[in-house]
Structures are given as C-alpha cells and as structure tokens.
Description:
Elements: H1 19-29, E1 33-38, H2 40-52, E2 59-64, H3 70-75, H4 81-87, E3 90-93, E4 96-98, E5 103-104, E6 108-119, E7 122-137, E8 140-143, E9 152-154, E10 156-164, E11 166-168, E12 171-172, E13 177-184, E14 189-192
Parallel strand pairs: 1-2, 2-14
Antiparallel strand pairs: 3-14, 4-5, 4-13, 6-7, 6-10, 6-11, 7-8, 8-9, 10-13, 11-12
Amino acid sequence: MPAVLAAVPAVALPSRPGKDDVDPVLEERDPRRLIVLGEDADLASVLVRLLRRDRLDVEVAFVPTVRRSAAAAAWGLPRDAAALALDGVARPAPLIRDDSGGVLVGRGVVRDLEGEAYCDNTRVLRGRVRRLVAVPGEAGISALPGRAVRAASGRALQIGCVDSPVELDGVAHPRSVPRWTWYRHTADWLLVRP
C-alpha cells in the first residue's frame, strides 16, 4: 500500500474480484470514487461490475502494482499514480467491451491468428500472423501495427479466424475462439487521469 493512501478506507478483495466481492462494497459504501490498487485484470474486473450494476457514474482511480501496466500506458497514468488517485480529476474514457461479457482496460492479444480482422471499415489483416494486439484509448479501440497487421483505430475491432487463443489484460481466455469483437460501449467510464 503506498504511504499516500494509508489514511484512505480500504477493502481487501481477491485478485480479479467478482460479483460476490465487488457488489457488497458498492451497496454498503455507495462510493463516489473507487481506487483500484492491483493489476490490469483487477481493474477490468471492477469495471465489469460497475457496468453490470449500471454504476458507470462512479469515478475510478487506478494504482498499478506492477511496473509494466498496459492500462497505465494506455491511459497515460504516471508512475506515481497513488497521489493522482486522491487528488486527480476524473474524466470520461471510452469503455471497451468484448463479446464475451468482459472489458479491456490495457491490452488484448489474439495469438496464432489465421483469418481476417477489421477495425470499422479498415481491413487490419488477412492471412496468418503470430499476434494481433489491441489497446483501448481516446479513439476507441486500436489495432497496433505489426508484421502483416495494419494499424487502425475506431469504434469496433472484429476478428474472424480459425480457433485462436485470446489474452485479456494479461489473463488467458478459457478457450480458443473462432471470432472475437472489441467495441466501444455507448457510455464512457470515469477515469482519474492527468
């Protein structure tokens, strides 16, 4: 726990908290701002609960516990995000969802992909690639450039392929998939950021 957050009321939750972990906190405390101290997948889990409870009005501050947080990089969070979590201003940020009920806060990877991918009307790839990397940001969802992958940003990134493994914010999806979509939700989330 960073020293600057020592006086903040805290609730210890397990890694990648679920409904039974997050929902009671939302009901009992009715927070205006949540500070998530953890990994990218922990932040994504909390956002899923806020989305499902229709509580995207809650401000969310993120203090990563790992050095290389893709979410911190995607949203321009400083190395010392703890001070920002207390005093920073929350601004709307695009909420990126996927078609399996999750959200993407930092980095999504589809590996050993053979197929096609489109970001809105732009063909990002056709054929076989080692990986396709997607990141959220101000523009919505972006496919990062790579070998045989064209960079593009837009509202949705749709992939059709031979079964491929997907990794979401550092966590492997439980099964390989023949298709995957990341898309911008109709409402933004409130992220405390510079």
